[in-house]
Input
Amino acid sequence: MPDQPPLLDRLAIRHPIIQAPMAGGATTPALVAAVSEAGGLGMLGAGLMAPAAIAQAIAEIRRLTSRPFGVNLFVPEVKPAERDGPAIDAMIAVLAPWYAELRTEAPPRPVPPPPDFEAQAEVILAARVDVFSFTFGVPDAVLLRAFRDGGAVVIGTATTVAEGLILTEAGVDAVVAQGSEAGGHRGTFAGPFEPALVGTMALVPQMAAVLELPVIAAGGIMDGRGIAAARVLGAAAVQLGTAFLATMESGIHPMYKQELLNATDDATAVTRAFTGRPARGIRNPLMATIEQAGTPIPDYPVQAALTAPIRRAATRWGRTDAMALWAGQGAGRARALPAAALMEALVKEAADATPTAIGRSA
Amino acid sequence: MPDQPPLLDRLAIRHPIIQAPMAGGATTPALVAAVSEAGGLGMLGAGLMAPAAIAQAIAEIRRLTSRPFGVNLFVPEVKPAERDGPAIDAMIAVLAPWYAELRTEAPPRPVPPPPDFEAQAEVILAARVDVFSFTFGVPDAVLLRAFRDGGAVVIGTATTVAEGLILTEAGVDAVVAQGSEAGGHRGTFAGPFEPALVGTMALVPQMAAVLELPVIAAGGIMDGRGIAAARVLGAAAVQLGTAFLATMESGIHPMYKQELLNATDDATAVTRAFTGRPARGIRNPLMATIEQAGTPIPDYPVQAALTAPIRRAATRWGRTDAMALWAGQGAGRARALPAAALMEALVKEAADATPTAIGRSA
Output
């Protein structure tokens, strides 16, 4: 990538470390601001937030830092999912014991839609945030041009080289290469998700070889050695999610944090069970119930709405058996530190990491 | 790993690069010898070879090089698969159009067993090869001790930290950490294979943090940058399969080599279709026929015996639609070079690879 734009210069961040924009409350303003203050790029995962809540979070981040940060949205489905009908009845029947056990109930019918994407984007555009990133597809060209005209760096998410090329064509400034190790939702948008589960070690070099844009490596990176390794593979920057999930400022439940720290390398699975979209999380009883029921899982965002009352109640009760425990395959190496301390450790470890000399004599 | 044994010194190889032992004819004596001559470690994939053929291949390798090399075997199933019965009838019916089209026929019944493991091991032991490696489990303690007493370095294959610990307990000298990117058979032996599909970026650091033995990284490594990245992650050495499959000396069909070079990052799948054991290969029509039939796939090695006549005929006819096109997720970056030239490139690239400085000012 000899002629790649100087991503770090444009973003005016000291370290090529992006805190992944995790939707669902993990990326508190305190976390986003702490990462940006420490010289990385904090990102608000706003995909599930109402427009007014996004505006409020942005204002709060700005009270905490004057450094650049970003906001991420979920690109809506081209064909909206059916929000009522027998398939939804069937899934509610599967979930009924969980609604009962957690003293909650199924959502009203038709299932409420997610926040309006256009309205979310308008808030972010009006706030003139430094970075706009997105997942699950490509927003329309007019919106992307508006962000770029407003001075934002625009970052898309790809799980294959083919998706990276679609994003390049759409005019993004950089592409997140999401390896199969990554926790949370798969960004896959141009085909089935199974073949697009490409490991970071294989994905980043192929993406870097073909794309003429900076590639941001994501998936399985938990420490400075992972950062250095990703850079060796051709990444201009890295994006870490699970590593920041365990920090003090992360908004997840303390018992979910504990599950991360205890996770073995084979603790996770990619499942449509929680939201209708494939996402990687620690296997637990709610996931097993839904997967083993044999009932077709409604598409995103309907399945997310059906499980939301259970997941919310599980968080109130501290019941990790019924949360969505999003996590990458490196979760067990997460560290329960303040975000600033984690950033400091990452930077130091990456600086210390050099490949052991290849020759025997060294 | 402060007190790890000096793996390279014990093996007396110049470069920490192991050519993966791929069964099925890829690892010709010419390939094994060329890699060892170039300062790496050539490995004969002998899992499917009759004892006499193994002895002959070892003799041939020794005519070509006096450097160290190794031999790999498949540890047999604890509970041998049923070699006759209605499930086998059903699979033969699924395969019938392929037998017919490729002018071959189903194997005799009961399905012939694979070569005898004890007899294979005896040949290797008698030949006093430098390295004995194995996949699919753990050989019995008496056999492992015999190899170690004979001076061989013993290497096992693990896909999770838990498997790495089992191998450590069994007394191996080093553990291959096989990431999910890797082509060919999954080494998984201590549980279901799906959760054990852990990406190299996540697997190697976790393995290196827990095991007190040298970790050999495998999966998705196609060039010297991949080697340097794996070393940064904590690997003492690397094992490359797909990269060597495309070399001149590799025994695979020229059209299979072409499929490797043309592969996209999302071209492969992990399937039980060809052999009854999960293995990663380029998706093709024979794989699709078997997977989509909805007929239960017999266990290894029975399914391997049922598809063998088709795969053999496909190789005779140059029909890649009916071969098992084992390949890792980095296949598209393979290079059609002589093995010595590939080794030279790998060593040079790895020596040149340094992580780009982490700080913005650099």
